[in-house]
Amino acid sequence: MPLTLFRDRLKKDWRYQKDVWSSVMDWTIVLYLIFPALFFSGLFYRSLWIHPPEWFDMINPLSWVLLFFLFTLSGKWRTYLFEADSVFLTKRPEWINQILQSAWFYNYFASFVFSFAAFILLLPYTVGLLDATILQNVLLLLMLTIIRTLCKVCLSWINFSFAGFKNGWRGAAFLGSLFIFCTLILAGIAYTPLLVLIAVPLLFYLVRRVFNRTMADPKWLPNHGLQEAKWKVRWIRLIFSLSKEVETPPHTKFRTRPLLFRKSRRIIRPMTPVTGMLELFLKHHIRNPKFIYYYLRILALIVLAAIFIPISWLFIAAAALLALGCSAIHKMMWETLIEKHSIGVKYRFDKSYEQGKNWTAAVMFTPIVLIALTALFL
Amino acid sequence: MLNVDIKEGGYAPNDARIENVRFSVGPGELVAMIGANGAGKSTTIKAIMGQLPFLDGEAEIKKGIRYSFIPERPVFYEDLTLWEHIEFVAAVEDLEKSDWEPLVQSWLSRFRLERVIHDLPGSFSKGMQQKSMLILAIMSKPSLWIIDEPFMGLDPSAVKLLLETLQEERQRGAGILMCTHVLDTAQRIADRILIMSQGAIYVSGTLSEVLEACDVPDGTLYDCIPEGDL
Question: Measured between CA atoms, how close is B219 to chain A, in angstroms?
Fold first, then answer.
């Protein structure tokens, strides 16, 4: 029964993600974009085998380690345990345990599939240029699978166990150690593959032990549920990243105090209606920088447009379009705080709200204007 | 203080959730809005707060008066501490520090929330969140209260404290619109009662008027809830 439950949830999730993608990709996109992209990528891949390009020689061994390291970080630990399970499955701990064990195998398998895809993509380089043996290639695949799984377990567990600063430095310490470990493993595969081969079952066993001693503890059930809710909407969040209607789990659920200004220290004095609005805007968006990222992305795009679009009128058109995007973000930033919020809604007609909006708009648009003017006159 | 005259309103066009809702709340008056789940109480409150997407009619709060709204489910700014919420309300309502600070401190101590003022309210228990909402509402000494299910999640001593506060607020001249499922309390403290059913006002008036209109002059409000809503 728990296996069926896990399988059903897995199927539903795949279907859900498929629906998310099909909501933005109709047959025209598949026909005119995806198929041609696949076709030309295939041709390019074939050319990498037939005539290894010259830039292969320029690849630094460190970038190879970096690539391996980034691949190991790319996974998400999925358990398909929901928040509601802490209510409905609480009387059946053996079910929770079995779902967690199924999740363990599933995550290993998912890691293997990803690693296999990455391995195939890198084959022209590893075989064509590095002359890696079959054993070395197989080791690369196995190690990527195992380390990627280990990474998923450890990073999730750090997120579960520590909040705030502790989470930050433990995460950083783990990533630092992981980078060194990846370097050692790659050096091992290059120079002493047999030794690495012996380490494979040991590492496999280690990952299993780490999992059983950390994430498999039923006390993390609510955390699994919250994490699952977050991963479930990861594509939808990416695709509809500027939509207000996408419900996302609160990011502060594990936290009792904010990371910055922990003692509620004020940023702006004196306390007036306008500074009150600005304080709310600043603190909310500093502590939850989702919209700041969107804004920075727009700034980065304007800088790129300034560099790569030589024609003035085309650049102005692009900058104007991006400024419009910025205006939409600015509107949303305030809407979430005032117009769509039970506490803020009663101040939606206040002068202080208008003034606060004008101030923040001025601050947000000034860099755009400055970049545009600099690009036009330099 | 509050004048509601709604022909119809809802969340989508041609999908009216409330119809012909007309009532008002005057100074020092406590109006209790009662009804079964889905009767349209919260939708009416949303219409008053300007949060209903489709509205034909008016739901007006007298211009220039201070009002406080306590939603059914406590909602906070996810990233602001309790103290920052308090300071935000004080700042935007332009309150004098000498007025609000002693009042807030006394309420924080009555509700035993002093220890958590620098914590995020999202991490509080339901009762603590409700108490925090009450403090945010009371600190501006509003002329009108709009309260949706105020007793939900409160412990008995907090309920007693809230009832005493509402009484004090009425005596101060504040009008109160209270949505509740707690019929006994509504019967005891309300000046006027509105019973909503299926998106419309089923019956309204003082307690005796309501009971008479329901043909149960010696009964209780429980006897007035329409059969279909039970």
Answer: 37
Counting as low any pLDDT under 50, the low residues of chain A are none
For CA atoms B145, B147, B151, B155, give the dihedral sign.
negative
The rounded Cα A6 to chain-centroid distance in angstroms is 24
Predicted local distance difference test score (pLDDT) of residue A147: 92
A273 contacts in chain B (CB < 8 Å): 91-94
pLDDT of residue A244: 56
Of A255, A262, A347, the CB nearest to B118: A262
Per the structure block, which two tokens stand in for B140? 């501006």
Count of domains forming chain B:
2
Domain that holds residue B29: 2-65+143-229
Q: Rounded CA gap, A356 and A334, in Å? A: 9
Residues B25, B119: one domain? no
ipTM: 0.82
Does the residue B71 lie in any domain? Answer: no
Asked if B77 lies within 8 A of A252 by C-beta distance, the reply is no
Give the whole-angstrom CA distance, residue B104 versus residue B87.
10
In a domain, B103, yes or no: yes
Asked if residue B9 and residue B109 are part of one domain, the reply reads no
pLDDT at B130: 87
Listed residue (A73, A266, A85, A91) closest to A175, CA to CA: A73
d(CA A147, CA A206): 10
